[in-house]
């Protein structure tokens, strides 16, 4: 290969939506921009977002590829790329798959924070497999999936993209993601897709919860909290990782050789692809002084494939100037080409697999498993005496705010709001009335009297509050797609960080007014991060962003047709002033605050049921923990058995608790089952094992001392 051809393989400069246009007769044609790009490098290494559709790209149902013609568009572009390459090298088509394929007609799944609330890796693995099959059926190849960010500060707008605050839970779900999407073996099956795990590493702990800010992490904290999910994903066979925007020990991840080469490749033996986040290579010019040396720094540090940068376009010059060894360039090119061979892109006979079915069912199943009951005084499930239900609040009758960030436009009528689902699922004769009450943001109180009247005339008020990551066309975006300003009702998502964790002010006024009527009230939170909500209503649930059909899952739980099986993947603070409130802090005997409670309102792992469970005393043999779990209530329920350890002797200051195993168990009324869990083989030391239904409960659970030193 010529130097020009090699450099071309390491570049992913174009926005995919700039590569095509739809003609008046409905066909697709290639743009001059694509032709110029392939001419510049005698081919194309990778193309980002050919199927992306959202407010940033400007692609909608009138201009972009849908399920019926996306594969044809991919084939059109690929034929041009191959014809432009002297060696006939195809391009990688890289797509966003953060919670389902981000494309027109793509199945939208609940966001990762909701997935974390399921504590169900097996269910998530099936959903991940579906997303991969959907991507490949449309001609896509590589899936960009958030998995590695650990949510240590919920002020961060991208908290919704994380599996929660705990490294062990995130690691198990990351394994499930990789297994589901990629399958097994060196070659990818036609319905499997290589995963780019993002973001590596420490992005969930940026200072102040500000997007792309620095992460002030010591090496111990980095290894204990922020690297286990990445390690698990790589052991599961992840094909690629994306270097994060943030810095680690003063050096941005895309220019951090200690992270990308010495640790990732040297210590861990990773031989896959390292991809830079959007424009991250060019940002390194702030250190190096120019884009040529910025590209050289990234390549020398371990980045193989750039995203939208100019720095990597000058790698030929960097070699000529002695900034990069040609062997380093060749190694990166080899890794890109290897992934293309693993995908079978050089095969003469390629077949596009059929589109998978069952996406809606998987989305609803995840949403249902994520619904978490935080408080309940007997208000739920809805009793037979309830004949009038007032469905209120800014989230009650919309699906747009159920979806989360990184979501393509939906066809009108797609999905189900809480109001829609309650009207459909409530028993015959139950009167459902509705009033919005207020907007998600702002202080307009004009709609509250109508909502109060509806609540006062009902037997139950269901008040649906929360936030939104819905991007609208009037949002201003940075060059990397992050929102620059929170317009309309956008309160979460990339670039939308909060100093406090409060809902819009009118939502609190609405809550107070509805509760003051005396009508039993159940609050449902649809949100991308934990918010501060007082315990004034009789029942409180969180569904996170449950996806387009989330209303169906929520209504089933409200009506008692389904069990609230979710458990918190993050601790919920009483106020932002308490932060951090994650459970696995260092085991120091501090006195807390003089002016406020130091404990979170709800702890990691918390979640109530419509039944009750009794745990027997655990027994430990070697690395096996066993105990009896009994459903002592009158209906079916699911308990998530959580095993925490407390280190009695440690090389460094220990944490209060660490999750080390978990298992969900469904039991009929009166049923008892022995649950057996296995501790990780790498755990060492003298520890106490505590089994409980939440981190807070584990603090007072009966401890069992275990010696894992041999």
CATH fold-level assignment of the largest domain: TIM Barrel
> Kindly, what is the distance between the CA atoms of the first and last residues, rounded to a whole number of angstroms?
53 Å
Helix content: 25-40%
Widest sheet: strand order? Answer: 3-4-5-6-7-10
CATH class bucket of the largest domain: Alpha Beta
Radius of gyration: 26 Å
What's the architecture of the largest domain, going by CATH? Alpha-Beta Barrel
Largest sheet: 6 strands, parallel
Instruction: Supply the number of helical segments.
Output: 20
Please tag this protein with its features.
globular; Immunoglobulin-like; six-stranded parallel sheet; Rossmann fold
Overview of this protein structure:
- The protein has 20 helices and 24 strands.
- It is of the alpha/beta class and 710 residues long.
- The chain has three domains: 3-277 and 325-342, TIM Barrel (Alpha-Beta Barrel); 359-570, Rossmann fold; 613-707, Sandwich (Immunoglobulin-like), CATH 2.60.40.10.
- A six-stranded parallel beta sheet has the order 3-4-5-6-7-10. Strands 11-16-15-14-12-13 form a six-stranded mixed beta sheet, sandwiched between helices. Strands 17, 18, 19 and 22 form a four-stranded antiparallel beta sheet that branches.
- Strand 3 (46-48), helix 3 (70-84) and strand 4 (92-96) form a beta-alpha-beta unit.
- The termini are far apart.
Short description:
With 710 residues, the protein is an alpha/beta fold. The chain has 20 helices and 24 strands.
Question: Helices and strands in order, then pairings?
Answer:
Layout: H1 3-9, E1 20-22, E2 28-30, H2 32-41, E3 46-48, H3 70-84, E4 92-96, H4 112-118, H5 121-137, E5 142-146, H6 167-182, E6 195-200, H7 219-226, H8 228-235, E7 240-243, E8 247-248, E9 251-252, H9 257-267, E10 273-276, H10 280-283, H11 285-288, H12 291-301, H13 315-320, H14 326-342, H15 359-370, E11 372-376, E12 388-392, H16 418-425, E13 431-435, H17 448-456, E14 460-466, H18 505-516, E15 521-526, E16 539-542, H19 550-558, E17 613-615, E18 619-621, E19 624-631, E20 637-647, E21 658-667, E22 672-678, E23 686-692, H20 695-698, E24 704-707
Parallel strand pairs: 3-4, 4-5, 5-6, 6-7, 7-10, 12-13, 12-14, 14-15, 15-16
Antiparallel strand pairs: 1-2, 8-9, 11-16, 17-19, 18-19, 19-22, 20-21, 20-23, 23-24
Helix pairs in contact: 4-15, 5-6, 5-15, 6-8, 15-19, 16-19, 17-18
